[in-house]
């Protein structure tokens, strides 16, 4: 198959996207595909590159911005070009943490208590009041960023201003959620026969601080346990919640679902990634390895399943 691997873009996650694109291109080549790796600046640039290369499919290795928020997916569909992963509506909902929270709450899925603020409404007294109500610890995040860009954990009221300003540097809305003390988990979901299947959960243990951008993409900065050391019933529950989150947002082919597991053993959904990282330290390849899939096999599954889904829409 001729596969155009689209990466780069202009979002704050550009550097990660370039690393994902390179790793995916190498893996697909090992799997026997003819691969074209392109650093592309616009949606129409992806369309033109796909046509110029005669690509059968575009592997979306773009993170954040127009590559992951549904705009690229809508443009590719309009031009009849198959691509990997979820459709425009699902990508938009997953990229926007406010929409994600609304969908999960509507479906009765557990999320940390919190509130979404517009830029003009994110006054410090309001954030301080929320912090007091939620136990004195908050996570502040831009609504529409991934890779933990712009995220802060706040444990003192005097640190709220800096955390608020950092989140609003990347978006005009922020999510302020109760920080859940406990463990960090993530679950890759792959569809088989159109039904989501959760792979074994991964526990994420940074050696210092929380799982921020540096700990995600610095080799050796974080310990990953896969499968996560969970009791059988809890592992099943986490997997079931990951599948439910994938379905709730209407995701296709594959996704990655992030959790906090409280000290009492209660899982809370954080977000769903429709174009998760595919670098040498990324989590979807680690989850695949836990069920015997090599990285080339993971990427091959994604492109073949995605092409089948796209052809089925025509």
UniProtKB/TrEMBL annotation:
Cofactors, names only: Mg(2+); Mn(2+)
Similarity comment: Belongs to the D-alanine--D-alanine ligase family.
Pathway participation: Cell wall biogenesis; peptidoglycan biosynthesis
Organism this protein belongs to: Aminomonas paucivorans DSM 12260
Membrane-spanning intervals of the chain: none
This protein's record includes keyword Manganese: yes
Binding site for Mg(2+) 1: 258, 271
Protein name: D-alanine--D-alanine ligase
Residues reported in the UniProt entry to bind Mg(2+) 2: 271, 273
Enzyme Commission (EC) number: 6.3.2.4
NCBIfam families the record matches: D_ala_D_alaTIGR (TIGR01205), PRK01372.1 (NF002378)
Keywords per UniProt: ATP-binding, Cell shape, Cell wall biogenesis/degradation, Cytoplasm, Ligase, Magnesium, Manganese, Metal-binding, Nucleotide-binding, Peptidoglycan synthesis
Predominant location category: cytoplasm
Residue ranges of domain ATP-grasp in the record: 101-304
Function: Cell wall formation.
Cofactor descriptive note: Binds 2 magnesium or manganese ions per subunit.
GO terms for cellular component: cytoplasm
């Amino acid at each position: 198959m001729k596969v155009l691997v689209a990466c780069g873009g202009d979002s704050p996650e550009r550097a990660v996207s370039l690393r994902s694109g390179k790793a995916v291109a190498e893996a697909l080549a090992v799997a026997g595909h003819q691969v074209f790796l392109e650093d592309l600046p616009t949606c129409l640039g992806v369309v033109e590159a796909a046509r110029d290369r005669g690509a059968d499919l575009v592997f979306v290795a773009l993170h954040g911005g127009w590559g992951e928020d549904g705009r690229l997916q809508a443009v590719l569909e309009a031009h009849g070009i198959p691509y990997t992963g979820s459709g425009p509506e699902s990508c938009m909902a997953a990229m926007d943490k406010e929409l994600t929270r609304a969908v999960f709450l509507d479906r009765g899925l557990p999320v940390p208590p919190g509130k979404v603020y517009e830029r003009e409404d994110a006054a410090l007294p309001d954030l301080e009041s929320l912090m007091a109500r939620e136990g004195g610890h908050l996570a502040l995040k831009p609504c529409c960023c991934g890779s933990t860009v712009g995220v802060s954990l706040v444990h003192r009221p005097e640190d709220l201003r800096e955390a608020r300003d950092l989140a609003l540097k990347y978006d005009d809305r922020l999510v302020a959620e109760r920080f859940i003390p406990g463990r960090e988990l993530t679950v890759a979901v792959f569809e088989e026969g159109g039904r989501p299947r959760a792979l074994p959960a991964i526990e994420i243990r940074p050696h210092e601080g929380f799982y921020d951008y540096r700990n995600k993409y610095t080799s050796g900065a974080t310990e990953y346990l896969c499968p996560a050391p969970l009791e059988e019933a809890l592992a099943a529950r986490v997997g079931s919640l990951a599948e439910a989150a994938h379905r709730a947002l209407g995701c296709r082919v594959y996704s990655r679902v992030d959790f906090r597991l409280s000290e009492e053993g209660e899982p809370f959904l954080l977000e769903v990634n429709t174009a998760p990282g595919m670098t040498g330290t990324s989590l979807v390849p680690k989850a695949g390895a836990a069920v015997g899939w090599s990285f080339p096999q993971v990427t091959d599954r994604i492109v073949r399943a995605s092409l089948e889904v796209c052809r089925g829409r025509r």
